[in-house]
């Protein structure tokens, strides 16, 4: 009787060892598969350097996040991180019945500019300059139309983005 118990317990012990061995090997393979899939994820974004810290760097290099109501542009970096916020209630423009004199920030008296001695509508001159790739002239003409921007200076939220 004791001999039967020992044989039975030995058989059970061996069968348990064999069944757990398969589980251990399966777990090791699963861990390797997960690591491989993390390193080869098609949706993963990887950058070697942060976005350019230039005036229009946000247009080309920053990563936009948000939902339309509130958002940010992430520029990346380890030592220095730059986040540019955008929140719709901070916008203060737009025509309305209460603001009949609203000009969109444009200077009304600067509607034309002289090009080769001829008065040309300033918007046409700006468009032509951009079409030629002459961004310096186009930017200069834009400043004549709206005045030089200082990121809203101390009058608005834009000052804190700089």
From TrEMBL:
Protease found in the keyword field: no
Signal peptide: 1-26
Domain Glycosyl hydrolase family 95 N-terminal, first and last residues per copy: 45-149
Entries under Pfam families matching the protein: Glyco_hyd_65N_2
GO MF annotation: an example: alpha-L-fucosidase activity
Keywords: Signal
InterPro entries named in the record: GH95_N_dom
Entry keyword Repeat: no
Domain of life assignment: Bacteria
UniProt name for this protein: Glycosyl hydrolase family 95 N-terminal domain-containing protein
Provenance organism: Clostridium perfringens
Source taxonomy: Bacteria, Bacillati, Bacillota, Clostridia, Eubacteriales
């Amino acid at each position: 009787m004791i001999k039967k118990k020992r044989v039975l317990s030995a058989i059970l012990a061996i069968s348990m060892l064999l069944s757990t061995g398969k589980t251990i090997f399966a777990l090791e393979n699963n861990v390797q598969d997960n690591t491989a899939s993390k390193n080869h994820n098609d949706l993963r974004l990887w950058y070697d350097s942060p976005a350019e810290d230039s005036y229009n760097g946000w247009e080309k290099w920053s990563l936009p996040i948000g939902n339309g109501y509130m958002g940010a542009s992430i520029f990346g970096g380890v030592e220095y991180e730059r986040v540019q916020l955008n929140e719709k209630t901070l916008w203060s423009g737009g025509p309305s019945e209460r603001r009949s004199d609203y000009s969109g920030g444009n200077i009304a008296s600067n509607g034309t500019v002289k090009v080769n001695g001829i008065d040309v509508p300033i918007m046409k001159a700006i468009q032509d300059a951009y079409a030629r790739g002459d961004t310096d002239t186009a930017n200069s003409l834009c400043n004549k139309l709206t005045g030089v921007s200082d990121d809203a200076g101390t009058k608005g939220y834009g000052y804190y983005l700089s």
